[in-house]
Amino acid sequence: MNVSATNIILHSLNYNSEGVLSCKMREGELPISPSIEQLVMDLHRSYQSKSNKAFAFFADEGEKSQVFQRALTEEMNGELDFVGFSQQAAGRLVAELKDHDFAEEGVLLISKYTWTTSDYLLVALLQNNQSISVNENLELQVSQHIETSKIQLVARIDLTLLKRDPEANRYISFIKGRVGRKVSDFFLDFMGAKEGFDAKVQNEGLLKAVEEFCEKQELPTEQKQEVREVTFNYCKEQIKEGQDIDLSSLSEEFQSTSNLEGSFYDFVSEDYQLEENFPADKTLVRKLTKYVGTGGGMNISFDQKHLGSSILYDEASDTLTIQGIPPNLREQLKRDALIDAGEMVITETVTDDGKAPFKH
């Protein structure tokens, strides 16, 4: 599903010879063209694919923090044109960078676009990278390009949600830093926003509710796995379509595909503090169908349906036995693994079903 860009402008943030950060501002919007539409689409897709997003809302915490919000409100009400809004936003960003003492340069892109049924404002600080190519005269030439797949300093405002429910706590989304106070935090300060809705907590609650619902229903292993897969496929489709998880719709999916007696919606409404709708976290929901573990130099991942059949776990010895090793892994083990009783045991004994188990 394509996006439709309505406004876009670029401003350049650079340090001068004296080490002072300044912003070179455009005086007019970029005309919407196929290449511009493609750029916005690439940025949108890249942003959608990021798993470490968090949500926020505008916080009324002082005059300085409201500069961006006030300018956006005026733009949305038709009191300020898009160029004027973007210039105020750029000036506010430069001031915030100076306050935080961050040495960030780049191209500030501000764009309004429509996707599915919502209007969005995308604000991103992009890096202008150099690349070398060969022209038709077989000469080397240096050109500039923006790496849209590696965006990190970016925030997106759901303008439709902001208009419909200004008291909501999740109409702003941004890419969250992984450890401690990251550079991305200044994007919240620059917009005068405060972190609000915690999608991770909601997704963790959903996974817990699905497992406990299956237990209450006393479902056999095969049907439990079917419910997990229905949940995963539903969440995956919602992410693809840019839609939230809807508990009522998910409950209907269970009824139509798994022939369950009880209502999942009624079950979660009783004891779980879940929102009616919330964004899916693809990193978490994939745990519905996979076992994933990393540590001690190992990275293990496999579909849950294999546990108890081709993959066995012995709790007493804390051992996984894998029957039917992937051919490429088997060849690597035969070629490179050092067989040492104190480190690794590789068993090539063929089992009754003709499969070779691997023990670690």
Kindly describe this structure.
- With 360 residues, this protein is of the alpha+beta class.
- Helices cover 37% and strands 27% of the residues.
- It contains eleven helices and 17 strands.
- The protein has helices spanning 34-49, 67-76, 82-100, 159-164, 185-191, 199-217, 221-241, 247-258, 264-271, 282-285, 327-336; strands at residues 4-15, 21-25, 53-58, 106-115, 118-126, 128-134, 140-146, 154-158, 172-175, 193-195, 245-246, 277-278, 290-295, 298-303, 311-314, 319-323, 357-359.
- The strands form five sheets. Strands 2-1-4-5-8-9-3-10 form an eight-stranded antiparallel sheet. A three-stranded antiparallel sheet has the order 15-16-17, with no helix packed on it. The protein has a two-stranded antiparallel ribbon with strand order 6-7.
- α7 crosses α8 (247-258).
- It is globular and about 65 Å long.
- It starts with a strand and ends with a strand.
- The model is unreliable at 339-352 and 354-360 (pLDDT under 50).
Features:
alpha+beta, 8-stranded antiparallel sheet, disordered C terminus, single chain, 3-stranded antiparallel sheet, 360 residues, 11 helices, 37% helix
Residues in helices, as a percent range: 25-40%
Please provide the ordered H/E string of secondary-structure elements.
EEHEHHEEEEEHEHEHHEHHEHEEEEHE
Give a short account of the largest sheet. 8 strands, antiparallel
Annotation field: number of helices: 11
How would you summarize what this structure contains?
By secondary structure, this protein is of the alpha+beta class. It is 37% helix and 27% strand.
